[in-house]
Amino acid sequence: MKLEGERWRTLVSTVRLGRDEYRVVRPAKPLKHAPLYDTYDGFRGVQLIVDKAAALELAMAWEFAMRSPRTLVYLPLRETEYDCRSFGVDDEPLLDLVLMHHSLGFPPSRWKEVRARLGRGRPHTVRSRGFPAVESLLTPDHQPLRRGYRDVVRHHFAADTLFLTGSWKSFALNGDQWRELIEDGPRRMHENPGEHFCTDIAVERIWDWMHVAYCHEHRVSANT
Predict the structure, then answer these.
(1) Is the dihedral of CA 31, 34, 38, 44 positive or negative?
(2) What domain of life (predicted)?
(3) Would residue 46 count as lying in a domain?
């Protein structure tokens, strides 16, 4: 399966709070199999357990967020039908996910109000253009260990939601991980039944802060 050319069906809402107006894009239907939870592990932040369909939607959401500096991309993952876990964790509460650019300046403390006013939204279909090649991003100014370097995905928690905030480049730098998950993962699992297949998303300079893994029970579909 190739990411480029895939279509993502969404709902678009515009919410006004005082003088501020926010554009929110979310999936037309909740993802069926994408439980997200905090591991409370000092070495890893959150786990996201997916099937093939959820992995594709998440990759498209990440790409759309990368290209949409004026939009809050909302994934209501607490509505998932499946609550599969890994690494021996059972009872951590599920989280929603919001992806956004830091230039938007949206304070997570306002999210609960915004979420309550989303309404039905209007249908909109997004077509994937894929991620840029990582090699094109490794320019001389790419110095992630330099103090003050801004092209880093950062995280916040508020209102049962994980917020991942970054620049175009910080989202793009994780593109290969999403591409590998959806383009290589299904084939690898078909060829090697029982193999664990996952990827790691770098947040706050921790390369594996967000661990995204295919569910061992529902590897291809939540219906299998």
Answers:
(1) negative
(2) Bacteria
(3) yes
Top pLDDT among 134 and 218 is at: 134
Residue among 47, 51, 29 at smallest CA distance from 38: 47
Domain encompassing residue 38: 7-131+149-214
User: What pTM, to 2 d.p., does this model score?
Assistant: 0.90
77 within domain boundaries:
yes
Burial (CB count <10 Å: 0-12, 13-18, 19+), residue 121: middle
Taking the CA of residue 110 as centre, how many other CA atoms within 13 Å lie in the half-sphere pointing to its CB?
13
User: What is the pLDDT at residue 224?
Assistant: 40
E strands of 55-183, at which residues? 71-75, 96-101, 122-127, 154-158, 161-166
Instruction: Give domain status of residue 139, yes or no.
Output: no
The whole-number pLDDT of residue 91 equals 76
How many structural domains comprise the chain? 1
